[in-house]
Amino acid sequence: MRLPLRSFCIFRSLICRRPTTADARRRNSSSAAMRLVQFRRHGDGGSIIRVGVELGEGLGVVDLKAFDPSMPSTMRELLELGDKGLESAHRALASGQCLVDRADIQLLPPVSAPEKVVCVGMNYKDHCLEQNAPIPQKPIIFSKFPSAITGPYDDIILPTESQEVDWEVELAFVIGRRGKHIKEEDALSYVAGFTVANDVSARDWQMNRNGKQWLLGKTFDSFCPLGPALVTTDAVKDPHNLNIRCLVNGATMQNSNTEQMIFKTAALVAWVSKFVTLTPGDVFLTGTPPGVGVFKKPPVYLKRGDVVECQIDQLGSIINKVI
Predict the structure, then answer these.
(1) Which terminus of the chain is more solvent-facing, meaning fewer CB atoms within 10 Å of its CB: N or C?
(2) CA separation (Å) from 307 to 58, 108, 148, 197, 312?
(3) Are residues 179 and 94 in the same domain?
(4) Is residue 97 one of the residues assigned to a domain?
């Protein structure tokens, strides 16, 4: 059935609102690179995932699928398209069309259902010192199940099985193209962008139970808040000179800089790709600075009602209530 011309115009205006003068000013004042997000529109029934480009942190989002129906519906699919996908996203951003107000959407984790969530342990010297542990000579690698990933403003669920749940703010990055045995000098070309993560950890399970294997203590549901956006590499001036902080109920618990990382992004990509093939959408958590609850005197753990905010300069903040 053909829509009457008036109905078509009304429909298109709903999904492809043209920018206001204020929108244009915001876009022109922001970086030429991109903040990619996954989101749901309120009213979509909670099942339809979309990919968009933020005009800036907290501002409107360009809906890629509304701009071009051939565009994929998930970040992982967009990254699998390689340069073609990112160029299409650039065109959508430059058009200023198909804007969705932030009030009309729910931000999701920038990547959902990755093939791998690769984590790095004890990657800040001062974090090693606060637990009287030796400085690693090689990266310490472990993992979370992808099902632990949750959104930038979703709740952290305290499991009944643990009484010692802790926070860990971390710089995260996402792989943009497939690779194995990647040379360190080429490694950054395999990285799509950076985001903020909280490596929530059940210390009793990590340190004392399950044979002291870390996996179960790291991978309860909701133990990997991620977001708010995937900030492309060309939008981050220096990922290893970013202030990184964690606040609990407004009190600063961790306050450091990513320059303190022992193994930087390129070294981690090169090291892990010796063992496994990296694929678009793979998420790396690069380790936490000092200030976690378990090593405070006395130890401090999360409780219901707490609000955890993880911040990294240029990337943004994720804010999660503990329930």
Answers:
(1) N
(2) 19, 18, 18, 15, 17
(3) no
(4) yes
Which structural domain, as residue segments, surrounds residue 71? 35-108
CB of 61 within 8 A of CB of 85?
no
Q: Are strands 283-285 and 117-121 parallel, antiparallel or unpaired?
A: parallel
255 with 192, same domain? Answer: yes
Please indicate, yes or no, whether residues 104 and 125 belong to a single structural domain of this protein: no
Q: Would you say residue 27 lies in a domain?
A: no
CB distance 320 to 304 below 8 Å: no
What DSSP designation does 127 have? H
Do residues 177 and 228 share a domain?
yes
Residues 186 and 103 both lie in one domain: no
Provide the pLDDT for residue 16. Answer: 54
User: In degrees, to the nearest 5, what angle opens at C-alpha 174 toward C-alphas 170 and 177?
Assistant: 160
Say yes or no: 128 and 177 in one domain: yes
Are residues 70 and 139 located together in one domain of the fold? no
CA distances, 138 to each of 21, 221, 263 (Å)? 52, 29, 8
Q: Is 215 exposed, middle or buried (0-12, 13-18, 19+ CB in 10 A)?
A: middle
Give me the count of residues in the chain. 323
φ, ψ for residue 233, nearest 5 deg: -60, -35
Name the pLDDT band for 6 (thresholds 50, 70, 90): very low
Closest CA to 287 of 269, 264, 305: 264
Q: Token pair for residue 81?
A: 């398209």
Give tens-digit pLDDT for 92-142.
Answer: 999 989 999 999 999 999 999 999 999 999 999 999 999 999 999 999 999
In total, how many domains does the chain have? 2
Taking the alpha carbons at both ends of the chain, their separation in whole angstroms is 48
Q: Does 39 have pLDDT greater than 50? A: yes
pTM of the full predicted structure? 0.90
| 188: DSSP letter | G
Residues 165 and 73 in one domain: no
